Amino acid sequence: MKKTLTTKLGAVAFSLLVLAASSCKKDAVSANNNSKALKTQSLGKYDNGFFLINEGWYGHGTGSVSFYSFATGTKQDSIFTKENPGKTLDPATSTLEYGTIFSNKLFLVSKVGGPVVVTDPYSLVELGRIAAVGGNNWQAFVGIDATKGLLSSASGIYPFNLSTYTTGAKLTSVTGSVGDMIKSGNYIFVLSQSKGVVVLNVADYSVAKTISGMVVAFTKTPDGSVWAAGGTSLIKINPGTLAVTTIALPFTANSTWFAWHPGSITASTQNNTVYIANNGTFSGATTIYRYIDGNAASLTSPFITIPAGKELYGSGIGYVAQTNQLVVTTVKSGFGANYGVNDLYFYDLNGTQVGDLAYSGYYFPAIPVFH
């Protein structure tokens, strides 16, 4: 379940194209000036940095969780299995596609028959799970309050009890494949393959509004506004009135539904600025645009052009509040062994590259996750 046209070809032909895979070794190269100890008091082993949720090499092994340390500028790999001996994210035919932290828990969501696993975000010790079952196709999670959330899937949305780690009856208000979800104010915003953005009332999950044509979602700016995109439009949704403001994009925001992955869109937590990748039909962006709310000229040209020969993979972008930077996950453009060439780039908010952690192995990064 790979993301770009090349990755979908890779999902079918990868074994034929790569006759001798390089070992999935961790590269201990530092990301240089990102090696800064930001914490003065530790909450646990995995507090001073962020997570990289990796799909894994489909059919050859499960997804994995890596941790990038601000203190050392390096990453640790396979930390879930290291912290939970005997527990796995099997089957190898599943794809670990989504992660998020909510209510002091890290949620790991797998597609294609894989499990949903809940862990402590500071120790990675497992707290509970929905077991892997063939036919399941979980896609994302959103928290509602301390005791409940929602899980999206290729067949709709299910309530998720955060005390028992069990699902309830599927919602009737939204049908078909649902991907990204986010909560703001009294509403939950979900991305439907067939209907675009569907806004649900928190109280009863009834539909409050539908915004068609949207295919990339979601991020939220400090004012609570929710952002999505589709076609040549970036939209801003008021979390109180649900009024929509449309901003023209200088490129086409393409769908990720063929092999779903989280949307390539993020926002600063310090000001109302949105960052969105200019993906091809199935991902593979080489440029990232910035929209400063109210400033149409800020979208005139790319904010970031990643180094030649590299392209975004998975969600591909995330905002790091602790360092006020953007992180970008890439692979080498092309087929086969190119997927084993990874770079984790760091950019300041002037669009200048300030760090690069290069590493080898067939990780297929899905999404960065931040405390």
From TrEMBL:
SUPFAM superfamilies: YVTN repeat-like/Quinoprotein amine dehydrogenase
PROSITE patterns membership: PROKAR_LIPOPROTEIN (PS51257)
Residues of the signal peptide: 1-20
Pfam families the UniProt entry points to: DUF5074
Keywords assigned by UniProt, alphabetized: Signal
Protein name, entry field: DUF5074 domain-containing protein
Species this chain originates from: Mucilaginibacter angelicae
